[in-house]
Specification:
Structural class: mainly beta
Oligomer: single chain
Helix content: 10-25%
Radius of gyration: 30 Å
Strand order of the largest sheet: 44-47-49-48-50-51-52-53
Strand content: 35-45%
Length: 822
């Protein structure tokens, strides 16, 4: 058992002992106080003591690197804990704490009046003895207490639960990234630029521990180029915001109203009220178009539900949304569409007096077992013209003498296919042109990146978001030259953008991240690479954070295909050490993007001592149609080989990785891949499948979107005409081949991949006597999104790998202790 003790009299502090037997350098232990501000009562005696102390600690923690703070105009200095400590008031102590593994122990405080112990600014406990459990990471420990005039001995004693529970108190200039930083830090969630480029509507979201799962969301109207704030919303924030063409008015939905902000005097007019479930505003001349949804109300007495279609398992399918037009001047609203099927507005052209809308009817005749009607509506007489019915369709926009359309390669009988002899993946988005006579041509057939959204400029050029390898950049499509050119946005992954489409030289605002760079937002001209920084998360939230390096690692597989990959190194990497490694790969059919953070925090895993290898096996979009087409009717046939071959190449190329301590994980389709890999190889020492598919037939029939997704991933194949695919590629039917310890994680409210998919595998492996764990997350769907659940999920995953790859079971046992009656 290891211990350390900090001893303080009124004259000096003596430090004796710590875990691992190293002495604490007293210069790293700092104190403020006693602070003798005039107060009606001692800090801990107030009726509002908890709130008063929480605010004080928040202030001290916020400036945790500062040597001085100012409170009530009094300059206070953090000093080494060797000066006198006499007088009434309050005392604060701080010291850095670092651990390289999950660490448990007891902190004992002696000689302080009403001590409170805080970790990273959050109260752990108000007591003389405090139990601490610290995940691998860097922390700031702070104590707050009332001071005394008399000389007393003060001590802090740390008693580790076992010999491995040691802490390091050395001062550090920077800290490793934490889960709280990655989840809580403020980011821009939406950008809406005025057509003239002068004004920016910007929304942000952040979290604070005291607020729990409730986000702090703010929307601000800012003036460019100085980025000054003109107007601010926090309650009743605007949604569906859209600028008028002259940029004089901003229309939006708030408080069940359509409101108009007049930019000149910042006054707000109410254009229409009592409008619940309204969204999708678009200006149409001097009027506004919008969608108005009527939720389906079931019979309260009903005890059963007769399904009308496969879509009826979607909770929202019977809701009906139609299009309406608001005359802004009079406030009168008229209905434009009336259909039993929801009418969705895509685009409008006030000069032509027409709208583009879609309706999706029930039709299972061909994969992907749905059909979209593209309709043009004349606003003057509400006549409708059916442009076409498509099984591969994403969107459409008006342009001069025609329209742009985004759809899969099979659109218009395969017009977008690069090669009719290869299988294509209809999630690989393509761009098309339909002229005024109805003739359609493919614009992106020879463009490998997968097309996402599109935004039209005033000259009919397009800005398109794409998936290009593991990056999501912006491209400009020059209509006259029929050419794509990438825009230098300064980020790898574009989170959001907006463009001043009415300018002759459009202004562009972009927010995004890169693999090891937090979110930044820029303003720039499309004709120039010069950028003005509008927001920098690095400076605001990560200035004192150190990250590991990232390296590209590609290899050529046995078929001659280049397989893209990247490697994250630990923050304090030492090439002479041997590290455990984690391997991660795509889910669905999308590559693993170079996001800085998200549900899969590669930088956090690296900070906790793992080398992380991320690869993009065959089947991922963004690498060309032949590459993504290997996703179809494969279910692991190509991608598993790539992952196994890639992991071996990765191990051969990185001598600092311990080949016997490699784990793998994935989610959704990636969770399926994890289970499938466990039936194919024993190269991994431990595996984790989140929301994975174990039985292709049950997912196809029971998942809310299973039949539709399978219409692409298993195109033309069904349990009755291709049982080999549905059985042989289902991990469940090969569970007896699994020898790798497997953790199954699933939200028990998952409607995409029902939780039974993990239960099937859990049942099989339990009956086979294999090592398996199943952890369900209550009330969580396919994604674990709420704050505390996200932390619990991350902790569960890393505790599992710490146990299996580092031989450190303490964290897992703390999270999931064995019960006496097991």
């Amino acid at each position: 058992m290891k211990a350390f003790s900090l001893v303080l009299t009124s004259l000096a502090m003596a430090v004796s002992g710590m875990a691992q037997g190293a002495e604490i350098d007293a210069k790293h232990i700092e104190r403020i106080g006693p602070v003798t501000q005039v107060s009606a009562t001692a800090l801990s005696k107030s009726a509002q003591a908890d709130a008063l102390r929480a605010n004080l600690v928040a202030k001290l923690s916020q400036e945790h690197k500062a040597s001085k703070v100012r409170i009530f105009n009094q300059a206070l200095s953090w000093q080494t804990a060797t000066s006198k400590a006499e007088g009434e008031g309050w005392l604060a102590y701080r010291l850095p704490v670092s651990t390289q593994r999950f660490t448990q122990g007891t902190l004992t405080v002696k000689g302080l009046e009403n001590p409170q112990v805080y970790l990273n600014g959050q109260l752990v406990k108000s007591a003389d003895k405090v139990e601490l459990e610290l995940a691998n990471g860097d922390y700031q420990l702070m104590l707050l207490a009332d001071g005394l005039q008399k000389e007393v001995s003060f001590s802090l004693d740390w008693q580790g639960k076992s010999d491995v529970d040691g802490l390091d108190f050395s001062a550090q200039k920077t800290q490793r990234v934490s889960a709280e930083q990655l989840f809580d830090s403020k980011v821009i969630s939406n950008l809406t630029l005025s057509p003239n480029g002068k004004y920016l509507l910007q929304s942000t979201i952040e979290y604070q521990t005291a607020q729990g799962d409730k986000p702090i969301q703010v929307t601000e109207l800012r003036k460019l180029p100085d980025n000054s704030v003109m107007y601010r919303w926090q309650d009743n924030r605007p949604s569906s915001a859209v600028w008028s063409d002259d940029a004089k008015q901003l229309a939006f939905v708030a408080n069940k109203q359509i409101q108009l902000l007049n930019v000149a005097d910042l006054t707000i007019d109410i254009a229409a009220t009592e409008l619940d479930n309204v969204s999708g505003l678009q200006w149409f001349g001097d009027s506004l178009l919008f969608s108005w949804e009527k939720p389906f109300k079931a019979d309260d007495k009903a005890t059963s539900k007769r399904f009308q279609a496969l879509e009826d398992r979607w909770s929202y399918w019977r809701n009906n949304s139609q299009l309406y037009q608001l005359d802004v001047a009079s406030g009168v609203i008229r209905q434009l569409t009336d259909s039993k099927i929801t009418s969705s507005l895509l685009d409008s052209n006030a000069d032509k007096g027409s709208l583009l809308l879609t309706r999706s009817s029930v039709d299972y005749k061909q994969p992907a077992h749905g059909i979209t009607q593209l309709i043009e509506l004349k606003v003057a007489d509400l006549s409708e013209t059916l442009i076409g019915e498509y099984r591969s369709f994403s969107g459409a926009l008006y342009a001069d003498k025609g329209m742009y359309i985004t759809a899969g390669p099979r659109f218009m009988d395969g017009m977008g296919m690069q090669d009719p002899n290869i299988e294509v993946n209809d999630y690989d988005g393509q761009l098309y042109w339909r002229d005024a006579e109805g003739k359609v041509s493919a614009l992106s057939k020879d463009f490998d990146p997968s097309i996402g959204s599109m935004t039209k400029l005033d000259n009919d050029d397009l800005l398109v978001t794409v998936t290009e390898g593991d990056r999501s950049p912006l491209y400009l499509f020059d209509k006259r030259k029929s050419r794509f050119s990438q825009i230098d946005t300064g980020v790898d992954m574009v989170d959001g953008f907006s463009v001043a489409a009415k300018q002759s030289t459009p202004t562009l605002v972009v927010a995004g991240t890169s693999a090891t760079s937090p979110q930044k937002a820029y303003s720039m001209s499309l004709n120039s690479n010069r950028k003005q920084v509008l927001f920098d998360s690095q400076k605001q939230h990560y200035a004192d954070t150190r990250l590991g390096k990232i390296e590209d690692f590609d290899f050529t597989n046995k078929h001659g295909h280049n397989i893209d990959g990247r490697v994250y190194l630990p923050a304090d990497f030492d090439a002479n050490k041997k590290y455990p490694a984690l391997v991660y790969y795509y889910g669905g059919t999308s590559p693993v993007g170079r996001h800085f953070t998200g549900r899969w925090p590669f930088n956090l895993w690296a900070a906790q001592g793992y080398v992380v290898y991320v690869l993009q096996p065959n089947g991922a979009t963004g690498y060309g149609q032949a590459f993504s087409g290997r996703h179809v009717n494969a279910w692991g046939k190509y991608s598993a080989d790539d992952i196994i071959e890639g992991t071996k190449a990765f191990l051969n190329a990185h001598s600092y990785v311990d080949a016997k301590r490699v784990g793998n994980m994935g989610a959704s389709y990636g969770g399926f891949m994890t289970m499938y890999l466990a039936t194919q190889t024993d190269i991994f020492a431990a595996s984790m499948s989140h929301a994975g598919i174990s039985n292709l037939s049950s997912y196809w029939g029971h998942g809310w979107w299973g039949y539709g997704y399978s219409g692409v991933a298993s195109r033309g194949s069904f349990p009755w005409n291709n049982p080999e695919l549905y059985v042989e590629q289902s991990p469940l039917y090969h569970a007896d081949k699994i020898s790798t310890p497997l953790l199954l994680i699933h939200g028990n409210s998952d409607t995409n991949v029902p939780v039974g998919e993990s239960h099937y595998m859990y049942t099989a492996l339990k009956l086979l006597g294999k090592e398996v764990e199943l952890v369900e997350f209550n009330d969580q769907d396919h994604h674990i999104n709420t704050r505390q659940a996200r932390f619990d999920w991350w902790n569960t995953t890393m505790a599992w790998f710490d146990m299996k790859l580092k031989d450190e079971p303490q964290w897992w046992n703390s999270l999931y202790p064995e019960t006496a009656d097991k």
